[in-house]
Amino acid sequence: MTERTVFHLTEKEMPDAWYNIQADLKTPMLPPLHPGTGNPITLEDMLPLFPKSLVEQEMSAERWVSIPGEVIDIYKLWRPSPLIRATALEKALDTPARIYFKYEGVSPTGSHKPNSDVPQAYYNKKEGVRRITTETGAGQWGSSLAFACQHFDIECLVYMVKVSYNQKPYRKNMMELFDARVVASPSDETDAGRKILAEHPDSPGSLGIAISEAIEQAVKDENTKYSLGSVLNFVVLHQTIIGLETEKQLALAGEKPDVMLASFGGGSNFGGFVLPFVKRKIDGESIRFVAVEPASCPTLTRGAFAYDFGDTIGMTPLMPMHTLGHDFVPSPIHAGGLRYHGAAPIISHLRNQNLIEAVAMKQTDCFASAVMFAKLQGIIPAPESTHAVHGAVKEALRCKEEGKSEVIVFNLSGHGHLDMSAYEAYLSGKLLDGEFSEAELQKNLANIKII
Amino acid sequence: MTERTVFHLTEKEMPDAWYNIQADLKTPMLPPLHPGTGNPITLEDMLPLFPKSLVEQEMSAERWVSIPGEVIDIYKLWRPSPLIRATALEKALDTPARIYFKYEGVSPTGSHKPNSDVPQAYYNKKEGVRRITTETGAGQWGSSLAFACQHFDIECLVYMVKVSYNQKPYRKNMMELFDARVVASPSDETDAGRKILAEHPDSPGSLGIAISEAIEQAVKDENTKYSLGSVLNFVVLHQTIIGLETEKQLALAGEKPDVMLASFGGGSNFGGFVLPFVKRKIDGESIRFVAVEPASCPTLTRGAFAYDFGDTIGMTPLMPMHTLGHDFVPSPIHAGGLRYHGAAPIISHLRNQNLIEAVAMKQTDCFASAVMFAKLQGIIPAPESTHAVHGAVKEALRCKEEGKSEVIVFNLSGHGHLDMSAYEAYLSGKLLDGEFSEAELQKNLANIKII
Fold this sequence. Notes:
Two copies of one chain form a homodimer.
Chain A: E1 6-7, E2 17-19, H1 43-46, H2 52-59, E3 64-66, H3 69-75, E4 83-85, H4 87-93, E5 98-103, H5 114-126, E6 131-136, H6 140-151, E7 155-161, H7 162-167, H8 169-177, E8 181-185, H9 191-199, H10 207-220, E9 224-226, H11 233-253, E10 259-263, H12 268-282, E11 288-294, H13 299-302, E12 304-309, E13 318-323, H14 345-352, E14 357-361, H15 363-377, H16 386-402, E15 407-412, H17 420-427, H18 438-445, E16 449-450
Parallel strand pairs in A: 5-15, 6-7, 6-9, 7-8, 10-11, 10-15, 11-14
Antiparallel strand pairs in A: 1-4, 2-3, 4-5, 12-13, 12-16
Helix pairs in contact in A: 2-11, 3-5, 4-15, 5-6, 6-8, 9-10, 11-12, 15-16
């Protein structure tokens, strides 16, 4: 093994603009709707929740959005992140495929999340916001927002999904280290939380519920705004720095990708990774993009394309997206960041256009591949990221069967150092796959507007 | 902040030999002694514990020792590690100093430890060893040995200091992920452990005790060898890859170091970091080297230079080293990797030659600097590494007072992702500094041979 396996970019080579795929879509996306009027949402409708510059980004059709210098300065603490060839994995699988992964676990909080937290905190600060509320599943998003907020001297209040709050105490410690206040959701601090607790006192919580709580706090207080870690256009926009760096690094490696994979929850790490390459597919290149989602929360593979709420209580605009219904409470799998009922509208749109594929994987299978990966490559994947690893392993085994030396590139969105209890559960045979009920799905979908 | 702050080397630029300072010492070290005969230890004396190639390295006076290709292949999973300029920290401290840190937390287990675990496992495998036993404090060494052993298909048995076993369950999970068996020490699996438990049933354990247990298992079984994570010449030798890379990276940055700091426990991360630069000092260059040790285990600053055992029971050769006495059981501070009664003989020797300095710092002060560092630079230091951070902060503040723009370089030996409970204790005001008793010290020293 003498050839190069790690591809670093210098700080100067870091992209200085995010890529907005809206500019290159042949068919435009459907607009989000105001739940009261049924009309397309306006910029003004979103201002109670988000600063104006982010709402403008949400609605922008400009191909490139400049990254502010203050954001670049913070990105440089960990970016550009490395692209690594997984030669040990290739050898162990005895595959003719060449496997690369982009590694986002080098960030301050160990995942891709700060790529959007930092600009969100920056734009809020610029518009005088004093406090930001948010939800977090596994804690990746919340800890990253905490990190970003303390950099810009903004208060941070995080509603953490209760099952994760209990499973992952170290994530809470990290948020507190970065000065955030962390509350288990559903909580009794909000009307939304109290409503859920009244109906389901033992609710493990969900991202949808935690979003309702965080939004309620923002709506109640004019000095507080809300921050979302996925789904929205501007979040996926910020994450495109992953794919833009990957493009340059694959060029350094002299490779053209055949198939690109990422774990799929709301869509930010998948979208950020693949969108710059989807542009090439729109232009005629042959590349496959595979979103790997949990079998217990199969939004893209089994959800309906519908106008649905982003949260559980129904406080957000109606979003055109693949959804399991906003009432859906996923099984308490360890990949807390993937426990979301909906899919980013932009990713849903690309799925409808057959530009991307999706597959659903069982948690135990994902952990089996992740343990193999950790032993061979020396990086322990986050529970969410195990899905991308397993997806890549399956593609590599397909290449072996078909005798094809394809180039497989996946996004390893984070490390699992704060999720070792999930590995303990797996190794001791106690990890469950979680359940998914078709009857429950149909019940949830009955109340929403299928498109 | 537009200048370069991260200095990566390519894989090709990684050093292909370790540096052995024995070749450049003006005054030779005293030899270790056989406790029975009082004569200098021979190669044969050490063979029950270590494979021959490592014993030869222990006694070698060759300046350069080639790194085997198989070891380089595994090193490449994370090496060369980055050198980073801490510009945010400089700005916050308002110091004219320029602060750089070498970051070893990028390794599979999050510290510098695999630099020696991988070659130790390799040489054992080459000589047919089937099982390796070891001790571990915070778990950094044990998890790294587990990682290395599974790569070479060797069984791994780790005695983990009981206080850390209870404080750091995630470390245990990580060792088990890498197929090791982990036992809390003192245990009832060995004569050494049973002896301690009989006298002190509530013993929190110590590295010295855990070493006794691991050695006993190796001595009892011919297919089992022992592995040590610090102190010995060959361990420090393997760690010199840190300093050798740092030399090349400082050259890239166009800098000449004025002061270099590292946390000090047994001496492997400190030694590995500074030895290639100590050579320059021997040759006349002006550089300061500062070992930062915990105030509750002040081996270099308050210990005696004596012939003492490396373990608590007295199974090792007598080592010429700064020691608090082999009976010393340090306070249960979170920096478990620094809870060792002795100092590597090579570092003790350099201290006697006035080639290096040592300072002792309180745990709470170290955590205060580490929290500041984490917020500014986006990396959460391991409890052990907080000592290096705090030492560097104090040097930077001295430079500010004196108006000197010195170049301060420290080794950030690991991340604290698996030690978040220590940060929780610090943030909630529950972190103790640990105690150190002069009377206890004098009692311990009464039984050993002061040189």
